Structures are given as C-alpha cells and as structure tokens.
Amino acid sequence: MAKQRIRRLAAWSIVIAFGVMGLKFVAWWMTGSVALYSDALESIVNVIAATAALWAISVSHKPADQDHQYGHHKAEYFSAVLEGVLIVVAALLIIAEVWRSWQAPAILDQPWQGLAVNGLAAAINCFWALLLIRIGRKDKSPALEADGHHIMTDVVTSVGVIVGLVAAVLTGWQFLDPLLAFIVAINILWQGSKVITSSLGGLMDQAVSVEEHMQIRDIISANSRGALEVHDLKTRIAGRATFIEFHMVVDESMTVGESHAICDRIEEALEQEIPSVRVVIHVEPDGEAKLPLGTPAVPFA
C-alpha cells in the first residue's frame, strides 16, 4: 500500500510541476519581471527533479537480486542529491539574470494580473509540498521528502516575490525587482545545500536518531527473555529500510533452537514497531559477555 502511494505521488508530482511551471511562465510573460522569471526558472528544475524522483523511487522498490542482495534502497538518495545540485544550478542562473536586470531595470507590465497567476501557482505548490513531506516522512522515502522540501523552497520563493513586487508596484522602486530575485537565489542556495547534506548522510550509512536508537534498545530489552546480555548495537539507514545489528550473549548450554526462538521474538517485535527493518543477530556464549554474569534484566554492555 505504501509502495503504491509513494509511486502515485511521485508520478503526480511531474504533472503538477509542469502545470505550475506553465503558470509561472505566464506570470513572467505578463509582467516582464525578472523576479517572476527567476521563479519560473526554478520550476524547470522542479520538473527535472520530479522525474528523477519517480525514477529513483521505482528503482528503490525493486526486490533484492543477485547483484544487489541488500536491495536498491539507496537509489532514492541519488535522486535527492541530484535535486540539491539542481537547486544550486537554478540559484546561479537566477543570480546571472539578476545581474543583467540590475544594469537595466524594466517597468513591470500588468503587475497585478501576473501576481495573481503566480499566487495561484504558489498555493498549488504549497499544498503539494506539505503532502509530499508528510507522506515521505511517514513512509521513509528520502526522494519523496526531498522533492517536497524542494517544492517548499519554491513556495517561499513565490511568496517573497509576490510581497516584493507588490512593494515595487506601490512605491515605484523598480530596483526592488532584481534585489528580490537575488535574495530568493540566496535562499535557494541555502535550501539546496541542506538537501545535499541530508542525502549524503544516507549514502554514508548514517545511523538512526538518538530517539530511534533508544526505542530499538527498549524493544530488544523487552523481548530478550532468556538471554544474558546484548552488546555492540549498530544501525544504519538506507532509504525506507533500517538495518539493525547486535550481539546477543546466551548461556553456553542453551540449544540452538532455544537461542533461535529468542532471536525470532526480538525480530518480530522490531518488525512490528519499525517499518522495513532488517535485523542481524550474532549469538555468542556467555564467555563473550562484557558485563559480570548475573546482572539483572538483559543489560546492554
């Protein structure tokens, strides 16, 4: 169900990106504003990014195969990194246009009509961005969430452009148009750097958050009856999947079947609480314990 929802949203993102891009270019054509032109340029990036996100999501949902035995989860991070790079490229294009406009400011044509069209595009983008971010976080889809954040930067851009152009029209200060576009470009650069940094963390096998780490510890402790100790807990995130690995110490006289039953109980508990979890448990005899034997409960060393 989650897989189908993610793919469906990714596909609709392309359609919406084309629609919003069309509205923004109409707004620029109506006004001649460099700020609106800059906003429209970023929409081209949105179309490319949405297409890349759909590709990455489709690849990441492929089952494991002989060449990719741990799955294809990290494909989404490549899309997210690409989005970040495209955001930076869009910002640089905007800065170049600002420089040309600053040297020859132009009077805006049909400003109110153009702003109304741009406002409609911003409203559509805002709704869609919030939806993508919420579903992306819920279903642990980095590509979908990155696409949502990217679109949200577009929303911030549009709102800033609208406010600035209203001020330019009311005051007659035409220099506000290129100045506003420059501020927008700086904001886009900042947002793009955050997307890239976050995605690189996933590619580098970043561990789960402290809160999630403590949750995992609690689940293991609550379901480790019969074990003596758990140590060397390690985690990493790859797209939707969370990989968990740890060592579990049992009495050396315990049978393989008994220790396996404990492992099954822990794995089932983790699977119920953490979506798309992959668990590896290394069972060790009591001679490998790191804490004094006889310590109450099932402590972590």
Automatic annotation (TrEMBL):
It is found in: Cell membrane. Gene3D superfamilies: Cation efflux protein transmembrane domain, Cation efflux protein, cytoplasmic domain. One of its GO terms (molecular function) is ferrous iron transmembrane transporter activity. The keyword Membrane applies. GO terms for cellular component: plasma membrane. Residues 13-204 form the Cation efflux protein transmembrane domain. Pfam families: Cation_efflux, ZT_dimer. Residues 211-285 form the Cation efflux protein cytoplasmic domain. One of its GO terms (biological process) is intracellular zinc ion homeostasis. It comes from the Bacteria. Keywords: Cell membrane, Membrane, Transmembrane, Transmembrane helix, Transport. Its main location: membrane. The keyword Transmembrane helix applies. The chain crosses the membrane at residues 9-30, 36-57, 77-95, 115-135, 155-173. It is a multi-pass membrane protein. Belongs to the cation diffusion facilitator (CDF) transporter (TC 2.A.4) family. NCBIfam families: CDF (TIGR01297). This is Protein p34. It comes from Aquamicrobium aerolatum DSM 21857. The lineage of its organism: Bacteria, Pseudomonadati, Pseudomonadota, Alphaproteobacteria, Hyphomicrobiales.
